[in-house]
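#struct-pred
JK: can someone run the complex with GDP-alpha-D-glucose? inputs below
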Amino acid sequence: MGRLVVVSNRVGPLKDTGRAGGLAVGLVDALTKTGGIWFGWSGDVSDEGTFGPFKKQKSRSVQMIQVDMTQADYDLFYAGYANRTLWPVMHYRLDLAVFDRRYEQGYRYVNERLASRLRPLIEPDDTIWVHDYHFLTMAASLRNMGIKNPLAFFMHIPFPAPEILAALPNAASIVRAMMAYDLLGFQTERDADNFRRFAVEEIGAADLGDGKIRYGNHETIVRAYPIGIDADAFARFAISPEARRHMARLEKLLGGRQQMIGVDRIDYSKGLPERFRAYERLLEDYPENRGQLSMMQIAPPSRAELDAYIDIRRELDEMTGHVNGRFADIDWTPIRFLTKSFPRKVLSGIYRVSRIGLVTPLRDGMNLVAKEYIAAQRAEDPGVLVLSRFAGAASEMKEAVIVNPHSAEEVAAGIQSAITMPLDERRDRWQAMFDRLCQNDAIAWSNAIMADVRTVKPN
Ligand code: GDG
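RT: done, structure tokens with the ligand placed:
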């Protein structure tokens, strides 16, 4: 078996320093099995950009190789097409999408440039695995450069219904480029199905059944591979001394009362203003929760340079002030809104003391917070997950309390059923989800994709 070459916008970390996500765990495991390269953007902007020297770091058999971008690449490819065009379209937010042909040109150009830097690093037996919406057109660039290796792709965010994607200028051309991959992995059956439908209806690809489609004379595997977390490790984090210290502090502060926890990057896809409104509705419609059930929202800022994110932050600050002004008491604050990030062990402890995990995105590829919340619970007295039907996680975590995040009433009622749920029922629901998380973990996820792409005949 040859090496693995992973391509993703941001690279690493290779060691779990306590801040790494589940994604890194699955990838590092796959990389260390065969040795290989993890290639991507350095996160730095420089005058030489993609023409500059590689930044390299090696840990045993895995080499991280990164390259800069120019300011123009950053503006057009990253802030532009990736985050102002593709992100909103893929999350069903055509109202927020910016269509500017310079963005698309910049995007195709950076895909091409990174492909041309990667090309000389590729050996004949390598398998290449590209990640996420930043690199939809990279396989087409690599094939044009003569690369014949197996090429897999995984889409971390949703793939929208064809009716939505059709609004993206040149959508057909982007999807045609995606067909240069040998395997396209999606988070859910729905996403994979959306892709297949677009390919069949809009570019005339043939559905071969068994998750395969053909375009021209090239076959592509199009399947769902729901991403998992390292559930065991996360469960262990939650009983670490660091987690326990923070749990003790929080329990003291709560003084026997309950809290709900939300953890999300500040992003319009995460449904944060809707969530705050639903909590207000809970306090209005179920007044027995006043003084009893608070909400903690952790929201590490992200991509803060985009206006949409600054606006949400301001809106959430205002809503926090409004709800707290309306319902706080001398010894009780309804909402604690923390715009900072915490080490993962601390986070796991916060999940563990929270009776409810609130995961209510308007759209989400998977949502790993839902999985982490379950992994961190106490088996003997677990909390309840309230989960949006529009998170990819909802197709796997059916024992959660599933809600429509657009309806303040429905979310409030879901929270109320979670807070009054009998212990037996909480245990049953939790056990079913936890067992599934342990089985379908991050390593199973990367193994499944690697096993399928390695069945592909040479191009
Ligand atoms: C994309 C897709 C898909 C959050 N705050 C802190 C912190 N986090 C960690 C969480 C979790 C991760 O960030 C967020 O993952 P999500 O899955 O919730 O969301 P996205 O960032 O939007 O990820 C998503 C995912 O890719 C994987 O395929 O599930 O749908 O949008 O792991 O714990 N980590 C630390 N401190 C924090 O304050 N250490």
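RT: quick notes.
The domain at 231-439 is CATH 3.40.50.2000 (Rossmann fold).
Residues 19, 21-23, 156-157, 227, 263, 265, 298, 300, 341-344, 347, 364-369, 372 surround GDP-alpha-D-glucose (CB under 6 Å).
JK: thanks, will look after standup
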